[in-house]
Amino acid sequence: MNTSPIDLRHSGLAPAGGATEPATVRLAIRIGYDGTAYNGWALQPGLPTVQGVLEAGLSMLIRRNIRTVVAGRTDAGVHARNQIAHFDLTPTEVAGLARGSGLEPGFALLRRLRGVLGRENGAVLVHDVWIAPDGFDARFSALWRRYSYRIADGPARFDPLTRAYTMWHKTELDVGLLNSEAVSLLGRHDFLSFCKPREHATTIRTLTEFSFVRDSEGIIVAHLKADAFCHNMVRAMIGACIKVGDGRETPGWVARRLAEAVRDSRIMLADPRALVLEEVAYPLDDHEIARRAELTRTRRKPDDITTDLPELRGFTD
After folding, report:
1. Which residues contact 246 (CB under 8 A, 6 or more apart)?
2. DSSP H or E segment with residue 39
3. Taking Cα atoms as reference points, which of 41, 40, 56, 42 lies closest to residue 4?
4. How distant, in Å, are the alpha carbons of 108, 221, 237 from that of 272?
5. pLDDT tens for residues 51-75?
């Protein structure tokens, strides 16, 4: 498995930025992946990552190093059903994607990229490739992200066939308590207690959905949606609710942790393998794409509500 960026010094490929014309055409890509074998999305030297796999494939096809920007960087072991990324090509590169076949450039690249990524044995699958509207940014144009999380509580619900995407919890959980704790986190808050802060980044987020339901097979499924999630936020919030749901903490503990706005060892990160990025939504109107990106780049403050754009473009199967 070759998941590192291609070394162009001995490959005969042009280095990034070495094209004779500027890369002015932005393409968007929707992919899904089983994160089990990867050390998360983001490039890491010497380690297999989803970004490494994707960029190696793109670089091989375009004949120069390609860099991608993603809607949300997932942690090691985390999966995605509909992840969105973008990258830039020159007009000449876009024109050459079809190689004289008459195919639409995005579809032509989709077919070729699927072939290259076949070596991942289905763990990384490209759903769509298209030319993005002006001002599109996979990260900053997004209105919200939606995640799911599966929990098998109690050995009677453990299933070896679903262990790659389900958390096993030894004792049964009280779904009512889980939901009572989850509700206390809804709204716009500083989620520092549940985030691993990045330098120069805010931990203010707007959480619009967080609930737990038990499905027909008895598995608890959490659903979460927010304008964005900071590092470890989803797994930390689920881990905190579990500590109340199994009786280790008293009801109201999650709200108290939120109010303290202090990250410490009392927060438990839930198992990454059960987490799936389900969907990313963007403004439906192409004219709103660039405006949304500019709004998001502005550092979040408690009173800057920027999520109320009514028409959404969601990328799902």
Report:
1. 169, 171, 172, 173, 174
2. none
3. 56
4. 34, 14, 12
5. 999 999 999 999 999 999 999 999 9
Percentages (nearest 5) of helix, strand, coil residues in the chain: 30, 25, 45
The DSSP secondary structure of 229-298, one letter per residue, reads --TTHHHHHHHHHHHHHTTSS-TTHHHHHHHHT---TTPPPPPGGGEEEEEEEEESSHHHHHHHHHHHHS
> Is residue 75 annotated as a catalytic residue, yes or no?
yes
Beta-carbon contacts of 25 under 8 Å, excluding residues fewer than 6 positions away, are: 88, 89, 90, 91, 93, 94, 131
Model confidence over 190-208: pLDDT tens digits? 999 999 877 777 899 999 9
User: Do 54 and 83 meet the contact criterion of CB atoms below 8 Å apart?
Assistant: no
Q: How far apart are CA 269 and CA 227, in angstroms?
A: 21
| 207-216 pLDDT, tens digit each | 999 999 999 9
Distance between CA atoms of residues 294 and 289, nearest Å: 9
Looking at this protein, which amino acid is placed at residue 160?
P
Q: Which of 34, 75, 137, 227 is catalytic?
A: 75
Residue type, 248: R
Average pLDDT over every residue of 235-248: 97
- For 146-197, the pLDDT digits (tens) are 999 999 999 999 999 999 999 999 999 999 999 999 999 999 999 999 998 7
Query: Do residues 82 and 128 touch, judged by C-beta distance below 8 A?
Result: no
